Amino acid sequence: MSSELRYTANTQLEHLHARYTGTGHADLTKYEWLTHQHRDTLASIVGHPPLASYLAIADGEAVGRVKFEMTERMLQPCGPPPAKDD
User: Angle at the Cα of 52 (from 68 to 79), degrees rounded to 5?
Assistant: First the structure.
């Protein structure tokens, strides 16, 4: 019975990862996870005009300028990646 349950849980997890690409995997580092979260947030702000307008008003800048800055920050939203251990 427990092996059946484990198989069902693994199948559901695989389906979840196939359907939602941003759910990560077992080898995902903290830096990679944070990078994905920040990029998703920035893409959402750029893609939803009311959010971009809200931030533009709050910052006192043009909407185009806010979208440009958000797009630029998507390149390295959490700074340079940490050094890898070999």
Answer: 50
Chain centroid to CA 55: 19
Tokens linked to 59: 């910052």
Token couple for 64: 């185009």
Q: Is the distance from CB of 77 to CB of 69 less than 8 angstroms? A: no
Question: Please, is 57 exposed, middle or buried when counting C-beta atoms within 10 Å of its C-beta (0-12, 13-18, 19+)?
Answer: exposed
CA separation for the pair 26, 15 (Å, rounded): 15
Q: Which two tokens stand for residue 3?
A: 């092996």
Query: pLDDT 10s digit of each residue in the chain, 86 long?
Result: 566 656 677 787 777 767 776 667 777 888 888 898 999 999 999 999 999 999 999 999 999 999 999 999 999 888 888 888 76
